Amino acid sequence: MTEFATILGEAFDRIAGENGFSYIRGGAYAWGIAGAAYLSFASSGLTPEQLRAAQYKARDEYGPVILECKWYDRLKDELFKGKDSVDALLPDKDGLMRLCPVTAELFLEMLDFCREG
Fold it and tell me: Model pTM?
């Protein structure tokens, strides 16, 4: 199973490209890591410090996330395929990968977190 950070980063990159925007090399993946960190913080015990480290690294090294609110439904549809939740491989506080359920509602909160990042 592929880590959710990779899946999310690829989706960020693809949707941005379809809308005439592009990330610098590694930027979409860095924001995928930040998004996965938020989901892990909410579901499997990632610490606030670990969450902020991922967020600040993405922002400081790659700039703000390229994400518009009008893209939310497209991202959700692409990653959830009509389901209310999916199982995602997320990092835990010890750096191990854990399979965690992610609801569509939590996913949309994560997108807001990235945009506010």
Answer: 0.95
